[in-house]
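Retro notes
What went well: the complex prediction finally ran end to end.
Inputs used:
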Amino acid sequence: MGLIVQKFGGSSVATTEKLKLVAEHIKKELDLKNQVVVVVSAQGKTTDRLIAEEKEITKNPSAREHDVLVSTGEQITIAKLSMTLAEIGIKAISLTGWQIPIVTNSNYSNSRIRYIHNETITEYLRAGNVVIVAGFQGVDENGNITTLGRGGSDTTAVALAASLAADRCDIYTDVDGVFSADPRIIPEPKKMDTVSYDEMLELSSMGAKVLHNRCVEIGKKYDVPIYVKSTFEKNSIGSLITKDNNLEDLVINGVTKDDYISRITVVGLENKIGRTYSLFKLLSEHSINVDVIVQSFGEHITKDLAFTVKMNDLPKTLEVLEQNKEAISAKEILHCENLSKVSIIGVGIANKPGVAADMFEALYENNINMHMVTTSEIKISVLVDANKADLAVKALHEKFFK
Amino acid sequence: MGLIVQKFGGSSVATTEKLKLVAEHIKKELDLKNQVVVVVSAQGKTTDRLIAEEKEITKNPSAREHDVLVSTGEQITIAKLSMTLAEIGIKAISLTGWQIPIVTNSNYSNSRIRYIHNETITEYLRAGNVVIVAGFQGVDENGNITTLGRGGSDTTAVALAASLAADRCDIYTDVDGVFSADPRIIPEPKKMDTVSYDEMLELSSMGAKVLHNRCVEIGKKYDVPIYVKSTFEKNSIGSLITKDNNLEDLVINGVTKDDYISRITVVGLENKIGRTYSLFKLLSEHSINVDVIVQSFGEHITKDLAFTVKMNDLPKTLEVLEQNKEAISAKEILHCENLSKVSIIGVGIANKPGVAADMFEALYENNINMHMVTTSEIKISVLVDANKADLAVKALHEKFFK
């Protein structure tokens, strides 16, 4: 007998019919003699509707009251799913975030989980219940309702799986797993059977919107096997996210793309200790998020430094840099807009120089110019012109998955 | 500086515009240097919508999960009202039933309040907040969400006023107070400035749907002055429900009507101790609610016993009585359908026999037949044919209020 945590998102629980489908997924695990804890999101567009109603009242809602408002969405789902299960003879009980409780800090609308009390859940499981938990919500130490922000229900599910030492956490979504590329660009991307936590973190932060990084990080920290499965495809096997991966074999696990990027080059920085630090401190003080950074070292008195920011941060970034040009001792600020970052992800990339060569060859053959290259242990990213980005994804997919 | 509890029902909080109107009522009390606790219901048809969605899933919802579901309605309102107040610069905080907590028994969907913790509310009041409380809901001693059933938000308001020793409880509704008769029958009924708790209890149970009996009972027990006021009429003074009433003066305070009543007569019951008891025990075992009971005593070996039940309980009642005719030793079961109960309410009626005579005269003059008469300390009720009921109300209103 195992313990499984299942998570169903908003589109999986949107209607009475879909709730019945969810109940079937739960029943399947019970038939296998497993205990089941289910985490659900708000139904369909419920949260959007509540936020639209909120906007009618105020443009600057109190974060505390916002959480009181939107947390009702998941509460509605848990009650309905519990009733749906009862209709097919399955004993179930619903629990809100505060009833468990899932205790968070008081950072409303973007709270972090501090700890989870297991007692209530385990008692209900022991009494033969399916336990249905409202995702996305918690309670702070003063009894205020909190919500976890983006990816909240995934985070609830993996955190519960960690806390309860569940055998696995199944994240049901509307796709059948983690894919090697966005199906909107590559018509038949390859589904990955196994992905490591680190690869998944790279994939998530690079625009593969299957799982939020927070939940993958918790999975990694507590070693929770996470399956990403389809709610709607029967017998979906999905993808397993886990630490196990054979580091000897190089596996390119995905090609991703991130749009709306601009590159800024700071030319002629004094080649002295502390200069790079003061530049990025300045940007951080203005809440500008920097992604890739490349620095050219040499024997010169000066150095050049390039980095990328999101397009909508570009005007602010240029303004800040120009105003502080002297302070940071830069000669010139150059920039380049309308770029995309295209990456290949795979454990062991760092140990196989041939991969980079294959990647650059594929881009060269397709006449795609690279504005910047960076590599990490498990990924290689290049900046390309935005209008060549989809072509780049196709070329790389062709190269590594055919 | 006083402490006022205000309660706004579903139609008073139905829209963003109406919430602004509610905020004005709150602001008025703050301007008078009062502290304010506000109890709200779910907006407009929210509860009805949730119940309709529930019916899609099941015809027999778990009472526990039903309460989890419907309690979201009030939670939405408290957050929205808190935001509405913030928009006009009023510091406010929302509290659900469990956050206070309002502790009830575990009788889901029809829970009784056991006790209320005042600490959280009084702390927030002391810190200068308007405290906005979700009506209708509580939490049992095991942390399950409960709801209070019909009249729940009124009950929350008056119970809070009692617990906090508030100076008064203002119940805002869509009528401007308690009236001497239903405005749908009497075009210009008299608004009562003051009504005693007992009169209000009679009025409520007789079909004047302004306040639920439970909240009046709590008001009476803890001596909470309750004002019934209009949300929509500016400067509404409303009606005060209180214990103070001059018992020396006879005041007829209302004429009420209760429809869909049938009378059953059990003829020829053995005139022995225990016969009446076993008859009503039998009905109670079948969950049949009996209202008026009249028993004819005499020197005979047998007695007749008449009582009223709601029309929709009639078939079941007749079936039960016929099946047990021998057991209860009845000769015959007669019944009469399509009756209405018309009553006049007023402190001191019992001490003024002339009132009954005036009442019967008014009915006689209008050719209205009385099928049964009962009296209490503060009311006289008669059963009349349903099609004469409105005429009876008019005749009595004419008699006592012109």
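What we learned: Chain B has a mean pLDDT of 88.
What to try next: split runs per interface for comparison.
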